[in-house]
Amino acid sequence: xxxDARTLLTDKKSELEEQMAVLEEPPGSPGEISFGKRIGEGxxxxxxxxxxxxxxxxxxxTMVDVDRALVKLDEDTYGTCDVCGKPIPEGRLEAxxxxxxxxxxxxxx
Length: 109
Ligand SMILES: [Zn+2]
Fold this sequence. Notes:
There is one protein chain. By secondary structure, the chain is mainly α. It has helices spanning 2-24, 30-34, 41-75, 90-95, 103-108. Zinc ion binds next to helix 5. This is TraR/DksA C4-type zinc finger protein. A zinc finger (dksA C4-type) spans 81-105.
């Protein structure tokens, strides 16, 4: 069970790293972007960048949880809440293997 969780977490970690690398790639050269530019296009590019930043932030938050869950595996506290120490329900861990908080404490975060 514990080794399954580790596999899940390391898989998720490399998936996150890949997704973040894609988001961190610089957009096409400025020449390409301005070529054939129409009114309104600049706005949609700005919005795209903003949502990319939001996605990137979200990935980073998940990454912190994945790293923490891996440490918890080493500490043998995996599956217990970081705040109150109570066991995290199995269903929650199945849905979110990198959960480090129980539902109650996660809601407070
Ligand atoms: Zn808790």
